[in-house]
């Protein structure tokens, strides 16, 4: 059974691993992160959703799931991905995200 992604505007489309991978590759450019790690990250998201029996998931939920996993792989990639996913409006929002990561690390 296909997994459907509900976009912000309400449209639905089939889950596309390649779209998630493109976002991850953009976030990890010039970082020493094996592609296998990114594949495993996407696999774990797909498996979690299927294990829950979900047939539909919001694009926002997928973004959250990516961030939850990416923060453990590479903090810089996390911030890069978050800057697109969370659509920071200004440097203050970006700075708050950085502070949050640093506090969690302590």
Folded structure, characterized:
The mean pLDDT is 90. A hairpin with a 5-residue loop joins β1 (4-6) and β2. The chain has helices at 17-28, 35-51, 59-73, 75-85, 91-105, and strands spanning 4-6, 12-14, 56-58. A 3-stranded mixed sheet has the order 2-1-3. It is globular and about 40 Å long. The protein is built from 5 helices and 3 strands; from the N terminus they run ββααβααα. It is mostly helical and 106 residues long.
List keywords for this structure.
3 strands, 106 residues, 66% helix, mainly alpha, three-stranded mixed sheet
Topology (elements, then pairings):
Elements: E1 4-6, E2 12-14, H1 17-28, H2 35-51, E3 56-58, H3 59-73, H4 75-85, H5 91-105
Parallel strand pairs: 1-3
Antiparallel strand pairs: 1-2
Helix pairs in contact: 1-2, 1-4, 2-3, 3-4, 4-5
């Amino acid at each position: 059974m296909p997994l459907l992604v509900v976009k912000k505007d309400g449209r639905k489309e089939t889950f596309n691993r390649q779209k998630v991978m493109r976002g991850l590759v953009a976030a990890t450019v010039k970082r020493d992160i094996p592609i296998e790690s990114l594949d495993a990250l996407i696999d774990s998201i797909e498996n979690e959703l299927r294990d829950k029996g979900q047939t539909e998931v919001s694009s926002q939920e997928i973004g959250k799931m990516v961030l939850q996993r990416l923060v453990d792989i590479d903090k810089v990639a996390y911030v890069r991905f978050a800057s697109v996913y969370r659509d920071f409006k200004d440097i203050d929002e970006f700075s708050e995200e950085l502070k949050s990561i640093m506090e969690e690390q302590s």
